[in-house]
Design goal:
Layout: H1 9-21, H2 23-34, E1 43-48, E2 53-58, E3 61-62, H3 64-68, H4 73-76, E4 80-85, E5 94-97, H5 98-114, E6 122-125, H6 131-143, E7 146-149, H7 156-165, E8 170-174, E9 177-179, E10 182-184, H8 186-194, E11 202-206, E12 220-222, H9 223-229, E13 239-240, E14 244-250, E15 258-263, H10 265-278, E16 286-289, H11 296-308, E17 312-316, H12 327-335, E18 339-342, H13 344-351, H14 356-359, E19 368-371, H15 378-388, E20 395-397, E21 432-435, E22 447-453, E23 463-464, H16 468-475, E24 483-491, E25 497-502, E26 507-509, E27 512-514, H17 516-524, E28 529-539, E29 543-552, H18 561-575, E30 584-587, H19 601-608, H20 625-632
Parallel strand pairs: 4-17, 6-7, 6-8, 7-14, 8-11, 11-12, 16-17, 16-18, 18-19, 19-20, 29-30
Antiparallel strand pairs: 1-2, 3-13, 4-5, 9-10, 14-15, 15-23, 21-22, 22-24, 24-25, 26-27, 28-29
Helix pairs in contact: 1-2, 5-6, 5-9, 7-8, 10-11, 13-15
The structure holds 5'-O-[(S)-butoxy(hydroxy)phosphoryl]adenosine.
Length: 635
């Protein structure tokens, strides 16, 4: 039996049991059989959640790019590693083979070295979704520099905070980027950010939009001439398994962003193993994850996981709406995509549009569909399943976090029967626990609680850059000897998990715990509703009452708002109970969202509480303009 490739449910249970009974042996076998190491580990695992300290494959030496590139050259040199699909559909797609990737990564690595970058130095990457982004990530890994990718939609302030937090010496960027019909002046944003970043001595600038930008003498250099002059050979830096590979910032519930530190060996093993199984990747498949490499989803499941498996991974520069709402499906047809991985927010937006945008294209290449990032509501799940998967491609609802490095709870397609809105079963090696408010584990099925993980897995983040105390307090202090995820979950009668949402979004109404997600699901079932968000606001008798923000579909516009309010509350009463009825319903044209598509409830909560004196940082919003609209119409 191969533990590496799980093909049916019985096999999953066998592998899972083994992974829990003897985790060290389990992970050691996978690490040994499927990767190249320069030196073997002395010990598979050393851990103590109370410190917390977690070490995997201690003493082992490797370079992750040897695993992602070099070792494939002999058998797959001419296979496409990265398939780049540009923003403009009339521009040709670019196929970068493993041979070409090897040369381009080495050239980039040599350029970084020439600029004085050494092992352990932090490199800030602020690039759009162009090949240079993936190549520079790998170039850092080649020479042991720690990459800190900042999503190229973040503002100058957000960028500066992230550059300074980990003392980046260099910033990699481009003259600008394409986003649908618009261009964005990335270099201008970098210039503004760097006014506050005295530690940055160099920027390397890729040319993408050929805009006329100013280059600061002595600091800014065009990338391409340096690459052209660089050697295509660069010996990999030999790293310890526990050397940091990258830092990636994630927003906390309060305060400044947390620089999650991921290390090399365990992260590689875990992302590769999960990629293979969760997407059932087979040789010659074309895999597409629509995320940006600026998020953990892109790090783990556009770059490292796929390349460690010798896969063909698509990088899409554009947006789902350009030139029209059919773009995703046009790309699926054009490149005969086999695995497609996206976010519920994208699915809901696409589902609002006419089906003609889907039906025009041949989607028969699709075998596996994935979602990630937030709970997927039942309506969106069915739309995805019916119209994209044609009821024959399993949907993998993958639950995980920036901090977990890789997918944690997920169906394995063709093995695990799926259930709408359920992330289903823990991946091998993952030991979830549901905890009650008193810190006790809730055993058995048909229960709900706070989701923790009780045993380390190889890709867990090891610390927060420069702030180990915050790492301990955020993740290891709420429940003793458990990693606390911040999410609530329920376990059904067969042991399937459903993530019910952040526990910080729980609202207690008249002493009842109400999750925002199930109420939103109920509201979204109304045929006139496109999207909704619930927050709590203070109420004299109930403690808290519920305030709903609702976006209507075109079909709902012009309808009587008071009637709609009654109908929405009727559905909630039917699905959840009268306790969950909304006291106030405000119809709006938009909801404030982060660039990764999450609704910023913090802002909605403040508006509903009429506490708008200090809305906090709105600079990272995708659509800051809706905030004013919502404030103007508050009930
Ligand atoms: C939070 C982590 C992991 C990559 C993208 C998000 C929520 C994530 C699911 C899912 C329900 C989900 C959780 C989690 N989440 N996936 N399949 N079902 N909720 O990474 O920004 O670190 O956010 O996203 O609340 O804690 P992130």
């Amino acid at each position: 039996m191969s533990n590496y490739h799980i093909k049916h449910l019985e096999e999953y249970y066998q592998v899972y049991r083994k992974s829990v009974r003897n985790p060290e042996v389990f992970w050691e076998e996978i690490a040994e059989e499927h990767f190249v190491w320069r030196k073997r580990w002395n010990k598979v695992l050393d851990w103590d959640f109370s410190k917390p300290e977690i070490k995997w494959f201690e003493g082992a030496k490797l370079n992750i790019t040897e695993n992602c590139i070099d070792r494939h050259l002999r058998t797959k040199g001419d296979k496409t590693a990265i398939l780049f699909e540009p923003n403009d559909p009339s521009e040709a797609a670019e196929h970068i083979t493993y041979n070409q990737l090897y040369k381009r990564v080495n050239q980039f690595a040599n350029v970084l070295k020439e600029q004085g970058i050494k092992k352990g130095d932090r490199v800030c990457i602020y690039l759009p979704m162009i090949p240079e982004l993936a190549i520079s990530v790998l170039a850092c890994a080649r020479i042991g520099a720690i990459h800190s990718v900042v999503f190229a939609g973040f503002s100058a302030t957000a960028l500066a905070t992230r550059i300074n937090d980990c003392d980046c010496k260099i910033v990699l960027t481009s003259d600008g980027s394409y986003r649908g019909a618009k261009t964005i002046d990335l270099k201008g944003i970098v210039d503004t950010a760097l006014e506050q970043c005295p530690g940055v001595k160099t920027t390397l600038v890729a040319k993408r939009i050929n805009s006329d930008i100013s280059m600061k003498e002595g600091r800014d250099k065009w990338l391409q001439p340096l690459l052209d002059a660089a050697s295509t050979e660069c010996a990999p830096e030999i790293m310890d398994a526990e050397d940091p590979l990258f830092i990636l910032y994630t927003s906390g519930s309060t305060g400044k962003p947390k620089g999650m530190v991921h290390t090399t060996g365990g992260y590689m093993v875990y992302t590769a193993y999960t990629f293979k199984n969760v997407f059932q990747y087979k040789e010659n498949d074309i895999y597409w994850c629509t995320a940006d490499i600026g998020w953990i989803t892109g790090h783990s499941y556009i770059v490292y996981g796929p390349l460690a498996n010798g896969a063909t991974t698509v990088m899409f520069e554009g947006v789902p709406t350009y030139p029209d709402w059919g773009r995703f499906w046009e790309i699926v047809e054009k490149h005969k995509i086999n695995q497609f991985y996206t976010a519920p927010t994208a699915i809901r937006a696409l589902a609002k549009e006419k089906l003609d945008f889907v039906d025009k294209y041949d989607l028969s290449s699709l075998k596996v569909l994935g979602t990630v990032g937030e709970p997927i509501n039942e309506e969106a799940w069915h739309w995805y399943n019916d119209n994209i998967g044609k009821k024959k491609s399993p949907i993998v609802d993958t639950w995980w976090q920036t901090e977990t490095g890789g997918i944690m709870i997920t169906p394995i397609p063709f093995a695990t029967p799926t259930k709408p809105t359920y992330a289903t079963l823990p991946f091998p090696g993952i030991q979830p626990a549901l905890m009650d408010e008193n810190g006790q584990e809730i055993k058995g099925n048909q229960v709900d609680g706070r989701l923790c993980i009780k045993f380390p897995w190889p890709a867990i983040a090891r610390t927060i850059w420069g702030n180990h105390k915050r790492y301990r307090e955020t993740y290891f202090s709420t429940f003793k000897n458990q990693y606390f995820t911040g999410d609530g979950a329920l376990r059904d009668e067969v042991g399937y998990y459903r993530i019910t949402g952040r526990v910080d979004d729980v609202i207690i109404v008249s002493g009842h715990n109400l999750g925002t997600a199930p109420i939103e699901d109920a509201i979204n079932e109304h045929q006139a509703v496109a999207e909704s968000a619930i927050v709590g606001f203070p109420h004299d008798i109930k403690g808290n009452a519920l305030y709903g923000y609702v976006i209507l579909k075109e079909t709902g516009e012009g309808r009587d708002h008071d009637n709609l309010r009654k109908e929405i509350n009727q559905i909630i009463t039917e699905r959840i109970g009268a306790i969950a009825k909304l006291d106030k319903i405000q119809f709006t044209n938009g909801l404030p969202k982060t660039r990764s598509g999450k609704i910023m409830r913090r802002i909605l909560r403040k508006i509903a509480c009429k506490d708008t004196g200090n809305l906090g940082d709105t600079s990272t919003l995708l659509n800051p303009e809706v905030v004013q609209e919502i404030m103007d119409n508050v009930l």
